[in-house]
Amino acid sequence: MRPDLDSLQALDAVVREGGLARGAARLHKAQSAVSYQIGKLEARLGIALLDRRGYRVRLTPAGESVLAEGRRLLAQADQLGALAQQFARGWEPRLTVILDGILPLEPTLRALRTLAAERTPTRIQLKVEYLGGVQQRFERDAADLMLVKDYDSQPNLEARDLPEIECVLCAAANHPLARPRSVTLAELHEHVELSIQDSSGGANDRHRFGGERVFYLAGFDTKKQALLMGLGFGWMPRYLVAEELRGGTLCEVRFRAGSHYRFTPRLVRRTDVPLGPTGARLIELLTASPTRASARTVARRRRGTP
Questions:
Q1: Which of 117, 122, 163, 268 is most buried, with most CB under 10 Å away?
Q2: Measuring CA to CA, which residue among 243, 261, 262, 259 is closest to residue 169?
Q3: 3-class DSSP state for residue 212?
Q4: Whose CA is closest to 130, among 148, 142, 144, 145?
Q5: Does domain 165-263 have CATH number 3.40.190.290?
Q6: Within the chain, where are the H helices?
């Protein structure tokens, strides 16, 4: 049978208040109406739910089981109603974010943790791609935001700068390229270059050295492991290898034309599709400086808001 939420609510109120009259008062209904709803539920189930023989009504053993399950259904119904009200006030049901795998994941996860703590109702999807695959997935999935190293500017896209990232050319301490003197492009070509596979299927990495011996890897964690094993040399974002560079397990390859470069990632959104409160809040969290973020947190606490 389909659950009768009104009847379950009547049963719950009568049990909580200890009698039909007080249960009816709790629901602001006539006692006869509450008694009828419970009787209807008993008839539909074919079992007695209340023992009415004493001064205070009591649940039968079957009634205890039915009410326990009924309260779970009532709680779910309340959550569903609250969720519908939030969406009616403009909260987007879903938000899709595409992240370039060269960018640090921690700031995005911190922002998502804040949204979770604020009980944001939106279902958020975070997808990781590499190089040209970031914008390709952004367009294919009609995603809302992308955090990207490089992208093709379009009239309907708006970008905001994110903190700068430095990349370092490195190799394991025991690799032939890990030596004090500078090395030439020809010397680099003698060794295996480790690169990240463009998830678009193209070849959009303008920082490749053009040698014939290239191993394409699925992500930067795998690339870091391969570097530590001495498999080859390659570019790595400094934030991922800073500890290994300090400890000497990885060394900077002193390429004559430059062994490090910097880039400014972008947070890109569509201007032709308005963002809801979740998207706007996520942008605020991702682009806030630590000083501004701390000031906002203090202000919220003073107001007594999350």
A1: 268
A2: 259
A3: coil
A4: 148
A5: yes
A6: 5-17, 20-27, 31-45, 61-88, 106-117, 132-140, 185-188, 220-228, 238-247, 277-287, 290-303
The residue among 281, 257, 261, 260 whose CA lies nearest residue 269 is: 281
Query: What type of residue is 39?
Result: G
Q: Can you read off the two tokens belonging to residue 242? A: 């800073």
Give dist(CA 208, CA 131) in Å, integer. Answer: 12
94-163+265-303 has which CATH code?
3.40.190.10
Q: What is the pLDDT of residues 265-277, one digit of tens each?
A: 999 999 888 888 9
Give the span between the Cα atoms of 105 and 284, in whole angstroms: 17
Q: Can you give the pLDDT of all 306 residues of the chain as single tens digits?
A: 556 778 788 878 877 777 777 777 887 888 888 778 888 887 887 788 777 776 677 778 877 788 888 888 777 766 665 455 545 555 788 999 999 999 999 999 999 999 999 988 889 999 999 999 999 999 999 999 999 999 999 999 999 999 999 999 999 999 999 988 899 999 999 999 999 988 887 766 788 898 899 999 989 999 999 999 999 999 999 999 999 999 999 999 999 999 999 999 999 999 888 888 999 999 999 998 553 444 344 344 444 444
Phi-psi region of 87 (alpha: psi -120 to 50; beta: other; left: phi over 0): alpha
* pLDDT tens string 237-284: 999 999 999 999 999 999 999 999 999 999 999 988 888 899 999 999
Strand partners, 230: none
92 DSSP assignment: -
Looking at 3.40.50.1820, 1.10.10.10, 1.10.150.20, 3.40.30.10, the CATH number of the domain 5-88 comes to 1.10.10.10
131 — alpha (psi -120 to 50), left (phi > 0) or beta?
Answer: left
Give φ, ψ of 286 to 5 degrees.
-75, -25
